[in-house]
Write a structure and sequence with these properties.
This protein is of the alpha/beta class and 354 residues long. It is built from 10 helices and 15 strands. Strand 10 (240-246) and strand 11 (249-258) form a beta hairpin.
């Protein structure tokens, strides 16, 4: 049971400015004293905790006092890519798996330096690094403080999913109460009231989100997603385009082309599937893929996708509505297919909606 009884005292030197303020506001003491007292009764089994309260209520002081070896404000990033900033003992497979787990699932962004990433991406990279580090407990201060609140909520849910797949323990320290329902903590300590609440053993349900899909004839919207596609920035304007929104904000893109085949006449194939970085890690891509696929299946049209994305392959392998129909490298085709347009240099998997 971590218990704290912290007294913070500061006595500034009596400069002209300090003396002026003391006299002007008739302050009775030159010393500033803050007292924080309470206890956190940690559950027997937990993975995610939350220390939350308004600014100045002692969150940082308490976190540093109780968890000094695990307290993190920031990591040092000096490499040309975030891949090379990860712990040296980790393999590429371990690093990319951690990136995907926290919703940082854009390979082009893995090759960027940390400094040029968005604040939402930086938050996820920090968490991936913490997961890859050898320490079992890590405490993040100023959690979600520099990101949009919608991004903070979606990111919090993606992060808690990633943590629960490991044996790590994570404590978020923040002044934003809105992340609690999305982070789904096992316990919460509120520094406004110095009260502790345990949610051990309680069922944790993600808040409802407004998910909608629209078909659009405006192909120019691809420009919003192009740089986030893991393979190509190009798009075939003959494809049918579908857009997914989360809480009325554009979040995902999926386009579909007719699949020319010598024997199969009614096959449609996914051309591009992209989820914006701020919405990755909560299953939006798979939900968009399934819902659009069902629309085509209603018209007795077969629906398939080929991908080399490890995270999407793993998701489709676990989904009972999808059947893997091919895995490996596709031989280069010469009759009627442009050279270099196949995936012969990449390991890909093809799945069909059943």
């Amino acid at each position: 049971m971590p218990t704290f009884d912290i007294i913070k005292e500061s006595k500034p030197s009596k400069t002209f400015r300090v003396a002026s303020v003391i006299g002007k506001f008739d302050l009775q003491s030159e010393k500033i004293v803050e007292h924080f007292k309470g206890d956190i009764t940690l559950p027997n089994e937990w993975q995610i905790g939350l220390i939350v309260g308004k600014s100045g209520t002692g969150k940082t002081t308490i976190a540093k006092q109780l968890f000094p070896e695990s307290y993190i404000t920031s990591y040092s990033y000096n490499a040309e890519t975030v891949l090379d900033d990860m712990p040296k003992e980790c393999s590429v497979e371990q690093i990319t798996s951690a990136f995907n787990a926290v919703g940082f699932s854009s390979p082009p962004s893995w090759l960027k330096p940390y400094a040029v990433l968005s604040n939402g991406q930086k938050m996820r990279v920090d968490l991936a690094r913490a997961i890859l580090e050898q320490q079992n407990l890590f405490v993040f201060d100023e959690f979600t403080s520099v990101v949009d609140r919608n991004v903070a909520q979606i990111g919090s849910f993606a992060m808690q999913k990633a943590i629960r797949k490991t044996n790590k323990q994570f404590i978020a320290v923040t002044c934003h109460f809105d992340v609690q329902d999305w982070l789904l903590p096992d316990w919460v300590f509120n520094t406004d009231t110095m009260t502790f609440q345990s949610f051990e053993g309680q069922k944790k349900n993600r808040p409802d989100i407004k998910f909608e899909i629209f078909q659009t004839a405006d192909k120019s919207i691809w420009k919003m997603f192009a740089k986030h596609h893991y393979l190509s920035h190009t798009h075939n304007d003959a494809a049918n385009v579908f857009i997914a929104t989360i809480n009325n904000e554009v979040a995902g893109f999926l386009s579909v082309l007719h699949f020319p085949h010598a024997k199969i006449k009614n096959m449609k194939k996914v051309h591009r599937l992209v989820v914006l970085p701020d919405y990755q890690g909560i299953g939006i891509g798979l939900k968009l893929l399934n819902e659009v696929g069902k629309l085509y299946k209603k018209n007795t049209t077969r629906f398939c996708i080929a991908t080399s994305s490890p995270s999407l392959i793993n998701s489709l392998k676990k989904d009972k509505d999808w059947r893997c129909i091919r895995y490996g490298r596709v031989p280069e085709v010469t009759n009627g297919v442009l050279k270099g347009s196949t995936s012969k240099n990449r390991i890909t998997a093809s799945f069909e909606l059943i």
